[in-house]
């Protein structure tokens, strides 16, 4: 019987031109040069996590693994992007307590948990099969696209402008707390120092005194997997992509959108906006517009979006949305929030 369960074979490191490394040629790259800037400290200090990320990205993908300043710099940039998102999540959770009711979650929140459930199992499967390059791809795509560009961007109004203890704000904090925990555990085998740094600044671990690598395995809840929720939100995101193609400006907050649709598409979008017109619906949040008018039509098209500048409302100086009735005054929502803020 073999004294091991499997054998893992990695590739062979070569220089930028594909030549094997040789002291006589002078093309050997010392790992210390990457992690500590070389013996004379004249080079960029990338750190151990960048070196580990480079190994994970390339060592199992090719027979010959090129090492060059461009490749290492690219690895450092990838690690930095992940770090920025994790730092944002930590900052957003500074006042969060873990007693939130999941019944208050928006459809977008449930959709994010659905994606988190899928992400966890995909990463776990890649680790189990030593597909470390796939782990890096999954991490990069999920963190930069789903977490940062989609979810964190859309929920900023709830996070910054709703009352601190409101169900809307706590709902997105609940989701971000789970994103932070599962993503931190997903990066830990590769970016162990970054993962440990997150642990040291995460109130949950600080309170319990747990060490990340001794805290056991955390599995996403089974009921996070919701295909029907995914179907509804993906439809709303499809409308958003069509809206962005129609709009010449990157800032859509000053626009009011009219969405014409029928049949099943109309029924699904109604789940995100039961009323015909709204500035505060879940659909308006995803589309990132001043208001949405959802109109049932008899058009054969799946949906049709028309945009126009809002003239009825003005810019709210607090939330930066075009939802105020008067110029240079907060909108109704922000006036209520400000009125209930207790003086320190």
UniProtKB/TrEMBL annotation:
InterPro entries: aa-tRNA-synth_Ia, Anticodon_Ile_BEm, Ile-tRNA_ligase, M/V/L/I-tRNA-synth_anticd-bd, Rossmann-like_a/b/a_fold, tRNAsynth_Ia_anticodon-bd. PANTHER family: ISOLEUCINE--TRNA LIGASE, MITOCHONDRIAL, SOLEUCYL-TRNA SYNTHETASE. This is Isoleucine--tRNA ligase. It comes from Diploptera punctata (Pacific beetle cockroach). GO terms for molecular function: ATP binding; isoleucine-tRNA ligase activity; tRNA binding. The keyword tRNA processing does not apply. Gene3D superfamilies: 1.10.730.20, HUPs. Residues 109-245 form the Methionyl/Valyl/Leucyl/Isoleucyl-tRNA synthetase anticodon-binding domain. Keywords: Aminoacyl-tRNA synthetase, ATP-binding, Ligase, Nucleotide-binding, Protein biosynthesis. Residues 2-64 form the Aminoacyl-tRNA synthetase class Ia domain. One of its GO terms (cellular component) is mitochondrion. One of its GO terms (biological process) is mitochondrial translation. It comes from the Eukaryota. It holds the Pfam family Anticodon_1.
